[in-house]
Design goal:
By secondary structure, the chain is mostly helical. The longest helix has 36 residues, at 163-198. 72% of the residues lie in helices and 0% in strands.
Amino acid sequence: MKLIGAGSRDNYEYRELQTFWTVPNIITVLRFLAVPLFIRYIALEDYAAATIVLVIIGTTDWVDGYLARRLNQISSVGKWLDPVADRLALIIVAITFVVAGIAPLWLLLAIVIPDGILLAFSLALFHGNPNLPVTNIGKIRTALLLVGTPLLLLHKALEPGEDWLAAIAYAILILGCVGHLLAWWGYMRGVWRKHRAKRGQQPDSPAGSAVNGHTNG
């Protein structure tokens, strides 16, 4: 079974629902509401319980996308709600990790700085959300970060020892941060191209865009 686009049906025309009340959207909201529970467990230094909550958060990120396609419940709300909830959850988790001394500052900066630049760029050109589709690299980036963070937390729960687990976690997180930068650059280009198209101009050619300009996950 494919991981990206799991649940999709070949030669099937999906309809986009205009309602919030879908199973995937409810799962997305519940997933985000689990973030305060994660913070509470970190504050209590119950790292094992916090790891379980983080695994649930990461797993349901895949589940809601699968159900949206499988149940034909793709919605206009879900298209922006899911990536926004994912991004906010990742930022909050990264902040919590840094404050608790579980992860270094670079993890937070690698996520927050590109997102801040993209947000400012989008607001400047569109005064809001440019509504770009989530890219595959954005999905892979999110998956890597949602795998690396619980592994790092599991290492904390099993201390002392198990340094091999920390090494694997950091390797995955570094790949996730690299993917985050690549996804960020793609979204920056996507925002610029959509802005150019909106103004009645042709998007940059592939050769020109590498020089002049730069899409979500």
